[in-house]
Amino acid sequence: MAYPIKIAWRYFFSKSQQTVINRINAFAFIMVVIATASLFVVLSAFDGLKAFGLSFSETFNPDYEIVPEQGKYLRLPPADLTRLRLFTEIIAAAPEIEEKVFLTYEEKNQVAFLKAVDSSFNKVVQIEKNITLGQWISFNRPEVVLGFGIASGLSVGVFDYNSFLFLTVPKKKGNSLLNQNPFLSQPAMVTGLYQINEELDKKYVFSSLAFGQSLLQVDEDQYTSLAIKTIPNVNEALLFKKVSTLFNSPVRLVSRANQNAALHKMLNAEHLAVYFIFSLVMLIALFNVIGALIMMILDKAPQLKILLAMGATPKGIHRIFFTLGLLICGLGGAIGIILGSVLVVAQSLSSFILVPGTSLAYPVVFEFKNIVLVLTTLLFLGTISTAWATRGLQKKFSSYAIS
What are the DSSP E strand ranges found in 118-163? Predict the structure, then answer.
């Protein structure tokens, strides 16, 4: 081990005769520990909030969706649908029809999106477990399942045999005569209410695929999309190549992340903002390291002159304090990571911090990438801060060596 590293190590653990300098050094080290632990805890908490928020929408979205490249509908005959379900990459596939409809219940009206699905939809997306009142549709009668937001707006309950929910859409077939009603309306029984999140609860109405095709006047092999559940770590390019051979028109394979592209972009932007804000806090904390190094250089000046007389070089003196600054950042960062990890693991196991106003545990996620990100940020900013604090040091001690 070269003498600059040995001396830097000795200076790190030794105490100065000046109490003020000892306190400045201790404060600088503690600030590095706190800043590192804070950045790691905040990133882990944000990842927890992100996972918690996405868990609601991702329970509703399939792994992949096949949608038409152009137009609104795609065609897939029953035989080709069976072939698609036999692909080794696919666990389950369910055709869907999604269309905006006008809902009427007694004297109340509301616009929503009809999502017509077949009986295999629950194998792709476990929507049935989100039904908190009533039951899932039976697929042999005109039945629908609503979100709590829609049900609240219409004041509708489940299994109300006195009043049916009417779904209305513009007619797509037939001649438009002057006295002919341009809308098609069909009644349905509300059998259940689901609850996912506020946005989805106000948006979708579920029905059987046959009911949707009848209401929207589309053919039996016409769908707006196909929801797919795939095996873990599926090769997306290979999957697209295989499924595209079943369609006569171009299609797209949309992943779960791309189905919520706007939400993911917003969360990533917020994550970046949080990272930069707390990186700035870390940079401010490193100003204490700069002050501590400057004070230590002044305090050790008599000893450094002796080292020069014994043959040390000005470059070696510079390396002593540069190494010392990196030691403060490195060891302080390591302790900060350990402290932050203990807090994150303790929260995930015992949940001692709750979301304000609720009984929900504040979500956190322990990820190794956050450790790498925090330490990389600390060492990068710490290197810059240390280099700035020791700038001109070599030139200064060169003049001492000459004299």
Answer: 131-134, 143-147
Q: Which residue has the tokens 């000893």?
A: 303
Residues 6+ apart with CB under 8 A from 348: 364, 365, 366
Going 302 to 303 to 307 to 310, the CA torsion angle's sign is positive
Tell whether 105 and 240 lie within a shared domain: yes
Q: In the predicted model, what is the mean pLDDT of residues 285-311?
A: 81
CA nearest neighbour of 197 among 96, 360, 58, 363? 58
Q: Look-up: residue for tokens 């696919």?
A: 90
DSSP annotation string for 327-347 = HHHHHHHHHHHHHHHHHHHHH
Query: Of 30, 215, 183, which Cα lies nearest the Cα of 115?
Result: 215
pLDDT of residue 402: 46
Task: Say how many domains are in the chain.
Answer: 2
Shared domain check, 240 and 175: yes
Could you tell me if 98 and 208 lie in one domain? yes
CA distances in angstroms from 46 to 101, 210, 239, listed in the order given? 37, 43, 33
How many residues in the chain? 403
Are 128 and 227 members of one domain?
A: yes
300 DSSP 8-state letter: T
Sign of the Cα torsion 289, 291, 293, 295 reads: negative
Residues 6 or more apart from 99 whose CB is under 8 A from it? 113, 114, 169, 212, 216, 224
- 119 shares a domain with 31: no
Supply the pTM of this predicted model. Answer: 0.74
Which residues have C-beta within 8 Å of that of residue 324, sequence separation ≥ 6? Answer: 8, 11, 12, 293, 296
Which of the residue ranges 120-129, 208-217, 233-242, 392-401 would you say has the lowest mean pLDDT?
Answer: 392-401
User: Both 251 and 375 in a single domain?
Assistant: no
**pLDDT digits 0-9 by tens, 7-56:** 888 878 777 677 777 888 889 899 999 999 999 999 999 998 888 877 77
> Residue 185's domain spans which residues?
64-256
State the DSSP string of 356-377: TTSSPBPP----HHHHHHHHHH
Asked if residue 98 and residue 228 are part of one domain, the reply reads yes
